[in-house]
Amino acid sequence: MLKRILSLFLIVMLAVVPAATLWVNPPQPEDFSSLQKIEHYLRDNLIFGEELKEVAAEVLLQSGQKELDNIFYTKDGLLENYWPARKDAVRSANTKSVISFAQNHDIPVGVVVIPTAAAIKQKLVPDNAPLYNQKEAISDIYHEMTGKVTATDVYSTLYQNYDVNTEYLYYRTGSGLTSLGGYRVYEAIAERLRLAPLPLNRYSKEYLIHDYYGELTDSWGKNRVVGDILAVYRVTNDQNSYYLQVSDVQGKTTGYETMYPLENMKEDPFSIYMGGECAGFDLTVTGNNKGRSLLIFGDESTRCVAPFLSQHYDRITYCNLENADRNKMRNIDLEEYEQVLFLYSIETFCDSQSIQMVDDIP
Amino acid sequence: MELISFSFVFVFLPAAILIYYLLPGRFKNLFLLALSLLFYGLLDLQAMLLMVGLLGLQYLAVLGIHRLGREHKGSRLLCACAAIFSVGLLVLWSAMVQIKHVALPLGMLVYLLTGLGYVVDFYRGEAELESPIHFGVMCCFFGKLYAGPLVEYQEFMPGLKEHDFSLTLMGEGVLQFVQGLAKKVLLADQATVIYTAMSAIPQAQLPVLGAWLKVFCAAFTTYFTLSAYCDMAVGLGQIFGLQLPHNFAYPFQSRTVTDFFARFNITVTRYIRRYVYRFLGYDSGGRLSNSFNLMLTAMLAGLWFGIRLSTLAWGMFLGVFMIIEVLWGHKLFDSIPPFFLRIYAFAVVLLSFSLLSANSISQAFNTVLVMIGLTEHAFTNETVQYMLVSRAVVLVACVVFSTSIYHKVDGWFRQKYPSLSKAAAVVLNTMLLVLTLAAML
Question: How confident is the model at residue A29 (pLDDT cuts 50, 70, 90)?
Fold first, then answer.
């Protein structure tokens, strides 16, 4: 009898779960446009999906496993374990591109490779967990560039500054740098470029979002990690005015009178940092009168560093080669800039071939 | 359509069950065939069309034999042509996999061999002429396309003709499917993670403990993946009133290598015995002839995993032990306690998996050298320690569920506390489903 009850229960479950999912999270017509989309819809909206993730996380932790989908659970949030996808081939080609860019153009070139949180917070990673030696990889990159490009070591700066209680350098639920992390990178860059960095106490902190949950919670769920705080740093009594022109991935341009546009904060919390993910932006600073302009080739990490650099330049142009239009790239006029900075996370530098697009710049 | 996906479990399967049970009896088999083609078509349309074409050719051979009569010389030729064509195609495609790195279409081995088995059975007079629908369902029932089991006409067809329906049987099918799904997601995939981590260590740095862990996990991954898919196939068969044979019977606790072959991939070994070993005259010849037959059987069992030198070597390695056991082992093995026999068989089988999982014979040989400490390699390293500590529960679970320990404990519990055990089964299976879904997310 019990066997029949169990059978009935399981059969009913097979029918009830999708029906309840459809009821609770009504799908859009496009969710049924392909088998893959149906799978995504069910995976993302499955009824009690968050609770199931919690169950999985709890079982793993109880079994002594603190790693799920290559993401570590630690007392300071979630850490993504980074391993280069294609060994050293991409890294080496990117290094060569940066060097040849510096050799072919008569303009000072700087490079910054930012480590991931797993390297900086490695003491929190479970004992013996295999980690990619990011310090060595960054040293190798810089070693190849010695004498040709000004390289800034931010690994040591971030590693020495990191403190689980006081230095909130990386997001707990995402893989990027926080504003404070951005400031520490800026500090190191400024010192290397002899720019006299503004001390941290010259900035006032504004907390905009208190419970942001990044992409790493997709695996571990949200309940066992503290949400992230998205904050912006503004110079106290700032007399400068800013005009930010952002080109999105489709090529559409939007202008803002601030570095921290809050218009789209609800849809995309990270849009508060220089307008969100884009192909590039152009920031004009009025009032600085420094007579300098900077061209940055970078990835998403740039958006938390650029606001600090704005105090030293009249104009900062950021180009995300991952999203950039190759034809527009060829039209970049290097004579408009005094310096070029390659500002990349180690993930992009080791895995993305987009950096090699700089070879096309005349 | 992937078998292990939410869209299969929560959309395809419930819809298929509902329609199947609402349909009148005479349409059920046609629906099963259409369902299987739809399942395959959603996964890979071209491969589905290829399957229809190939099975069509095999069925034409059967019709030809039927028309000519079994005694006719042309029938023999047709049967031989079907065999040469089917096996030749498999060999050719496997060679393409090796040389041009093209993928072997999913289930090709299963449906071609099942179809060929029917052609041979029909030629021998051991099967009747069936409709294309019955033939189609037997060869390409969607549940067994991934890894079998290989079904035989005699055991499959009666069930197909007289579907046995009951809520209990259907429930058992759902349970079997859920347990298979859990086996794949919770054990096979986890063992694969450890195996992949060990394989990522360069061979020259592979520590002794790492080599052992690598081979252990290769064995667990192979066993749990294959048996999980077969369990799911058996479960799906039961849901739709079909009886599919079980394919594994705790092979890692075999007492001899011969016993291992009787417990591992049972339907494949049975297929080889039925269509190859029987053709060669079983063990009626002399010692040399018997040895040759045994070796050929073992080698063919290895080729089930792909036509590669390492899979052939896997079969040959085990074949050597099988020959020794069959020809000279009777007296010796009778005097050894079962516990030591199991250790012997497990050690041989484990070593054989170093061949099955290696990219080359030399790599397998090096792994064995590391395992037995004949190299300068370190005993362990951080990766091995991390995997052993963080995946200890997975490893223990793999050991428990690859042997009959759980089965025996469950049996004892059922006998001692019959009512409680039934309630516990409800709770345990529900928990298993929840955990599996959680792991799939």
Answer: confident
Chain A hits for B167, CB-CB cut-off 8 Å, are 4, 7-8
Closest CA to A342 of A108, A87, A184, A90: A108
Q: What is the ipTM of this complex?
A: 0.76
pLDDT tier for residue A219 given thresholds of 50, 70 and 90: confident
From the CB of residue B285, how many other CB atoms can be counted at a distance below 10 Å? Answer: 13
- Locate B94 and state its tokens: 């496997």
CA B235 from chain center: how many Å?
Answer: 15
- pLDDT digits 0-9 by tens, B122-154: 999 888 989 999 999 999 999 998 887 999 998
pLDDT digits (tens, 9 = 90+) for B349-401: 999 998 888 888 888 889 989 998 888 888 988 899 999 998 999 999 999 99
User: How far is A188 from A112, CA to CA, in rounded Å?
Assistant: 10
CB of B11 less than 8 A from some CB of A: yes
Percent helix, strand, coil in chain B, to 5, is 80, 0, 20
**A136: burial class by Cβ within 10 Å (0-12, 13-18, 19+)?**
exposed
Cβ of A7 within 8 Å of Cβ of B1? The answer is no
pLDDT value, residue A121:
92
Residues on chain B touching A67 (C-beta within 8 angstroms): 390
Structure tokens at B357: 């999982």
Residue among B172, B426, B441 whose CB faces A49 most closely:
B441
* Neighbour-count burial of A146, counting CB atoms closer than 10 A to its CB (0-12 exposed, 13-18 middle, 19+ buried): exposed
- A8, A11, A72, best to mutate vs chain B, most B CBs in 10 Å: A11
CA pair distance A345, A207, nearest whole angstrom: 25
Distance CA A64, CA A67 (A): 9
What residues in chain B have per-residue pLDDT under 70?
A: 281-285
User: SS3 for B88?
Assistant: helix
Residue of B nearest to A13 (CA): B10
Nearest CB to B178 within list A10, A52, A55: A10
CB-based burial of residue B33 (10 Å sphere; 0-12 exposed, 13-18 middle, 19+ buried)? buried
Within an 8 Å CB–CB cutoff, is residue B406 touching chain A?
A: no
Residue with tokens 């006029």: A333
Give yes or no for a contact between B209 and B379, defined as CB atoms under 8 angstroms apart.
yes
Which residue is associated with the tokens 């041979």?
Answer: B120
Q: How far is B398 from chain A (nearest CA, A)?
A: 14
Residue A55 at interface with chain B, using a CB cutoff of 8 Å: yes
Under 8 Å between Cβ of B178 and B13: no
Which chain A residues touch B14 with a CB distance below 8 Å?
Answer: 14-15, 18
pLDDT tens track for A101-155 = 999 988 999 999 999 999 999 999 988 888 989 999 999 999 999 988 999 999 9
The kind and range of the H/E element at B287 are helix B287-303
pLDDT of res. B426: 79
